[in-house]
Amino acid sequence: MDRLRESRSGGDNRSLAGTVLITIDSLRADALSGTGAGEHAPTLTGLRDRGTTFENAFAHGNWTPFSFPSIMSSRPVFERSRSIGLPESPTLAETLSGAGITTAGINAANGFLTDHWGYDRGFREFDALLGEDNGVYSKYLSAHPTVQGWVQLVGTAARRAGKRAQGAITSAADGNLGPGTPGVISSESPRGTRGSTAGDARAAAVGARARSFVDRVEEPFFVWIHYMDAHTPYLPAPRHVTAVTGDRVGIVRALRAHARTGLGLEVDAGTLGRLRQLYRAAIRGIDASVRNVLDGLAARGLRDRTSIIVAGDHGEEFQEHGHLAHYPKLYEELIHVPLIVDHPDGLSQRAAPAVGLDAIAPTICAGMGVDSPPEFEGRSLDRAIRSGETVAEQPVVSVTVRGGKVTQQPIPRRLDEGELLASARTQEWAYIYHTDSGRRELYRRSVDPAERENVYAEHAGTETVGRLHRAVSEHVDRLGGIEEANERGPPSGVATRLKALGYK
Fold it and tell me: I need a labelling partner for 462 at 20 to 30 A (CA). Which of 208, 235, 368, 420 fits?
């Protein structure tokens, strides 16, 4: 570990007022470490510089339903069931609540993280921000974040078009016409003249809900906050795009940029550049929301006694391996994620050994002075955070399920809906095994961080490959659980409406 400064205080583990776990959907590792990260994420990179950054942290799946069981229960997806959802074993929130800690969970309308899948278990307060519409169509959209995002994006464009039309009618009646006149909302309007997009409003709503909790909670407390704004389609407010790039991407350009994203098709360099801009600007909106929560802690004198943990639940692809978003793959851009712990008694340091997100739950328990249940499989990182103890590296295993083609819709959610792919990662190596075809891939991360050159043939039969394959095989052998009935598809009316939008 690269230890940059000493512990900020001398308190013990039980001195914490609380812990805030911030998970950010689709957050790549380089989003908080690459060039210019401080410009679009000043708050989050500030936490990085204050705390412990685990430079080789890996998600246990390529998308939310495959990754989150490890975060909230420190157990792998599919271990006890062939479908997604939390296992029956104790959750982080249940463990903390049982120790007398006040808990709250705030999820920005990701339907995979709702009570339907067990993610409300153990939380005294739980808000999925799904709104008051409990109709079948609304529930279906909430369970399909990409579809939901498209509906929001198209709805935003429609609302703006309506406002333009209404503004033009009003202006004509007043004898004023053209962009820039009163009542007209133009794609060329100056900064600050247009309202927030649906995505920006969502980030603000999450922050406001979390701020309300920290403004009134009694210690000790735990709050989990999940942001969706870095999930495709990206819907940042124009002011965030301007702040990040000095330019703006209007709603029509955003629609064009996202059209191929939703279909998983190739895009040109200009479109890819606009998508990256939108992604960074969306992170800036999250950053502002996080700042609001931290300000709330500071106002109550709790900031310096609260541990802040930031993690991406998985990454995001920008054509590194031929696609966009997060289709069923296990490459660097989807599995390597940020993991930052800003603990009041912790060191400011960089930790290089590989760690999995299943370490989050036991680390939070240790930090709060609570014993982890024996069902937690991850290893606590608390001593590494507080004393700089070197983490004993073990391969981190991740899984995905791939259908007949990578872009198959809907993306497989069950173990029996396609081919299981499993990977094992260390600081130095990435190994991917296709369980049906037997195909194997090996990448040396230190010299090929983009994972472009498969060097398996050169290293087949070595101790390194043997160790990585054993980790994968042992993990795969555990999966399957109890066979259960297939999930029912959406009602016919919902299916018809989604088909009209281009989804199956």
Answer: 420
